[in-house]
Amino acid sequence: MALFNSRKLAAPIKPAATYKPGRWRFILPLVVFFCMLLTWYLLVHFNIFPSYAMPTPGAVVKSFWEDAKSGSLLTDIVASLWRVAVGFILSAVLGIPAGLWLGQHSTARQAFLPVLNFFRFLSPLAWIPFAILWFHIGDKPAVFLIFMATFFPLALATMSAVATIPAIYFRVAKDYNYKGIELLTKVTFPAVLPQVITALRVSYGIAWVVIVAAEMVGCQDGLGYGIWEARNGLRLDSAACYMIVIGLLGMGIDRFLLQFSKIPNVRWGYER
Question: Which of 23, 50, 56, 63 could be 237's S-S partner, Cβ–Cβ 3.0 to 4.6 Å?
C-alpha cells in the first residue's frame, strides 16, 4: 500500500493551462463595452430616467456627427489639448527636477515638505477665482490651474522615489567616482524613472479633471466649455458626446505614456 502511494505521489503532474492574455485582450473590453451600451439602452427604453435627463445612444451619435461636421468639436479638442499640454509639461519640467533635488538633500526636504503637502491637499479648483482675477479668461488661467494641480504631486512623488533608493546604489556609484550630473544621470534618475512615469500618468489624469472645470468658468472654447454650453442649452446629448471624447482622449494619451514604461532601460525598475 505504501509503495502504491509513493508511486502515486511520484507521478508526473500535468501543468495547468496557462492564461494567454493576448487571446482575451480585445474580447473582454468589447464585452464590457456592449454590456454598458445595453444597460444604457435599457435605462432609456424603460424610462428609468426622464427623457430630458437621459439621451439615447442614437441621439449622442447624431450630436457627435453634427458637432464634428460644424467643426466646433475639433476646435474644442485642440483648445483643451493645448492647455493640458502646456500646463502638464510645465509642471513636469519644474516638478521632477525639484523632486530630484529635494530627494537628495534631507535638510531641504524637511524644510519644504510641509509646504508641498499643504498645496497638494488644497483643491486646485479653489484657485479658480484667483486665476480669473490674475489672468482673466482664456488659456492662461486654465494652464495655471493645471500647473497647480500637477506640480505638487509630481514633485512629491519624485522626492519620495529618490529618498527610497537603496543605499547600495550610491555606494557602488561612489566606487566608480560618480558625482554631480554623472551621479544623477547614471544612478538617481534611472532608479526613480519607473515611479516618475507612474506619477506622470496619475498627474495627467488630474490635469484632465481640472481642465474641464477650468474651461467651464474661464474660457470661451474647449471641451469643458462645450459641456457647460450644452448644459445651459439643455443639450445633454451634446454633453454626453463631449464626455465620451474626453474619456477617449484621456485613454489614448495614457496609453502613450504607458509605452515609456516598456523601454528596456526602464522596465528593470518594475521587475526588481
Answer: 63
